[in-house]
Design brief:
The model has no long low-confidence stretch (mean pLDDT about 85). The chain has 1 helix and 6 strands. The relative contact order is 0.16. Helices cover about 30% and strands about 40% of the residues. It has a 4-stranded antiparallel sheet, with no helix packed on it. It is of the alpha+beta class.
């Protein structure tokens, strides 16, 4: 069985001068205890999103997603593949959701 993981993260979010939105996180050393003796404290070295407006009317958005995580254990390959696939699908799902929302609100 694979033990559950937890993270203690410091996050920073905000807009840059070029209009990009940045949401960045990394692990910090903090004496937080979630009272779950089975949990392993994993480390996120760097992670986050950068959303940058693109196009002449800024009608498109470039999405960059980065994550560098040390799970503090050997994780079976099939689980890693599943996690990577879900993260890749997340960007597509966000796009599809936004497109559906825009169609619905523009149709009104």
């Amino acid at each position: 069985m694979i033990a559950p993981r937890d993270f203690v993260l410091l996050k920073r979010m905000g807009y840059q001068e070029d209009g990009s939105y940045v949401n960045a996180a990394r692990s910090i050393n903090f004496p937080y205890n979630n009272n779950d003796e089975e949990s392993v404290r994993a480390v996120m070295h760097d992670g986050g999103w950068i959303l940058t407006p693109k196009g002449p009317l800024r009608e498109k958005t470039q999405v960059v997603f980065l994550t560098h995580v040390d799970p503090k254990a050997t994780i079976p390959r099939f689980i890693l593949k599943s996690v990577v696939k879900r993260k890749a699908n997340l960007v597509r799902n966000i796009r599809d959701g936004l497109e559906s929302y825009l169609k619905a609100t523009n149709a009104q």
